[in-house]
Amino acid sequence: MRLTLIDTHCHFDFEAFAPDRDAVWQDALAHGVTRLINPAVDIESGARALELAMRYDGIYVAVGLHPNDTAEYTPSLLERVAEQAKQPKCVAIGEIGLDYYWDKSPKVQQWRAFEDQLNLAAQLGLPVIIHNREATDDVLSILSTWQATLPEAQRERIGVLHSFSASLESAERALALGFYLGFSGPITYKKADDLRYVAAHTPQERLLVETDAPYLTPHPHRGKRNAPAYVRYVAAELARLHNLSFEAMAHVTTQNAERLFLLSG
Question: pTM of the entire structure?
Fold first, then answer.
C-alpha cells in the first residue's frame, strides 16, 4: 500500500511560496503528500487558490473570508464567495470564524460574516473550515446554533476546527457537534503537553493533519518557513500519541480527509 498524506490546511497561494512553488510541491509529493487543501482568506486569495488548483492535480480549495478580513464585509462579498465556491475543486467554505486576538475587524462584522458564510455552506452542502483564536466560547455557541439547523446528512460532513488549540472540554463540545479536529505543528513543540493531551484523547476517526504553511512550522524545522511536506511530522506525533505506526496514522487521517471533503484518490 502506497503511503499517502493529505495536508488539509496549507496557504499554498501565499507569497512565501512564490519563489519556489513548483519545488515545494515536488518535495511534498516526494514525502507522500499527494493532496492538499488551500483555504482562502479573502476574495483575492480565493482566486489565486482556484488558479493553482487548476495547475496542480492534487490541490483543492476552500473559499471564504477570514475573520481578520471582514471589516469591510458586505452581502456583495458573500455573493463573490458563493461564485468561487461553485468552481471546480472547491471542497469547503473556509477559512471562516472568529479572531479576538488581532483587532482587525469589529466583532459585529466578524459575527455577521461568520454566520452568513455558515449559511452559505449549508445552502451549498459544503463542509466548513473554522478559524478560532481566543474566541472559543463564541465560536462553539454559533456553531451549535447552526448545526441544529442542518439536515442529518450534512452533520456527518460538517467541517473541521483547524489548528485546534483549545481545551479538552472544548474539543469534546466540537466533537459532539460532529466536527473533526485539525492538528498542526504546535503538537510537536516542547511545551505543548496540554495540546498533546487533547490530541491523544481525540477519536482517531476525527483526526486531521495540517501544516497551516507557511506558518506554525513543526519541530525540528521551527523558525523556518513551513511547507506541506512537513505535515509528516504532525502525523508522526499523532501516531506516537495514539500508539499507532506512522503508516497507520497516515492511512487513518487520509481516509478522514477523503470522507470529510469528498476527495478523490
Answer: 0.97
